[in-house]
Design a protein that fits this description.
single chain, about 0% strand
């Protein structure tokens, strides 16, 4: 649904009106959800990169878990699951 809305807005509105639509959407629940989804995606990508860098630097699995706990404020069990997901 949101993709259809964005497609129509992009096709039929000039930049000024498109900016107004963007501002209105940002104030809605949908806008808030989209922002939160973007933030969560960014955090997930950051976690993946941190884990890959830890591996490249030669940190152990356990050291990497500790980094995820401290840097991302995760519980130990959650941190372990995240590291397992991206550890090669």
């Amino acid at each position: 649904m949101q993709a259809v809305l964005y497609t129509f807005a992009d096709k039929f509105l000039d930049k000024t009106k498109l900016a107004k639509v963007r501002e209105v959407i940002k104030m809605t629940l949908l806008g808030e959800m989209l922002v939160n989804d973007g933030i969560e995606l960014g955090r997930e990508q950051a976690l993946q990169v941190v884990i890959e860098i830890c591996e490249e630097l030669g940190l152990t699995f356990e050291q990497t878990v500790e980094k995820v706990i401290t840097r991302f404020d995760k519980e130990p069990r959650s941190a372990r699951e995240i590291v397992e997901r991206y550890w090669k």
